Amino acid sequence: MSDNGDKQGSAFGRFLSGMVRERAWVWLVLAAPMVMMLTFFTLMAMEGGDRVDRPAPVRVSGEADIGGPFTLVNHLGETVTDEDFRGKAMLIYFGFTYCPDVCPFSLQIMDLALDRLTEEERSHFQPMLISIDPERDTVEQMAQYVASPAFPDNLVGLTGTEEQVAAAAGEYRVAYRRSGEGDDYLMDHSSIIYFMDFEGKFYNIFAHGTDPETVAQGLKDFLEEEGAS
Q1: Yes or no: is domain 3-226 CATH 3.40.30.10?
Q2: pLDDT in tens, 29-69
Q3: What predicted TM-score, i.e. pTM, was given to this entire model?
Q4: Which residues contact 224 (CB under 8 A, 6 or more apart)?
């Protein structure tokens, strides 16, 4: 590579580093899932798979258009809304209990991250799993699943009707569809931990595969910013 090319590469590297320092990386992470979603729905249309509503685009300036009201049923059989979790920072993952790997992996990352916090710090966070497979994820199934010792102790499982689940997923721009036939079908879905603040507003996301230490540090930074640490 020429000297000019080396200089351009160095300049680009400095530019990216500056973006990370300013937390602009959040938008890069947000953009990647949206690209995957577009590809996902294109393939779905080509394959004739079961359809779900397409997520609306995420704004790339100002406040992220992610999150909103939902009404679902928790693993205790109680109807709850997003308002019931005010005062807690929500860590929300959309998945399903029959997921063979991606979902339990993400919930374990959540657990390992929370374990790196003090008891007082953990008390500010509410981890939750919102099912995208309400046909099989009954209240009883969710109750059994969230009790796993591999997941956060206070993990809340939320399910509901197909319409309620679709409405919640739409608020968070989650892409999902049923894959396969019979009782052993899987659910293709985007894999993101959504980090909402004490008022239920979008604060950050953790992309699939983010290590527990990075997640834990993000939670600590949030508490420090909010004066709650």
Answers
A1: yes
A2: 444 444 344 434 333 333 344 434 333 333 333 466 899 99
A3: 0.74
A4: none
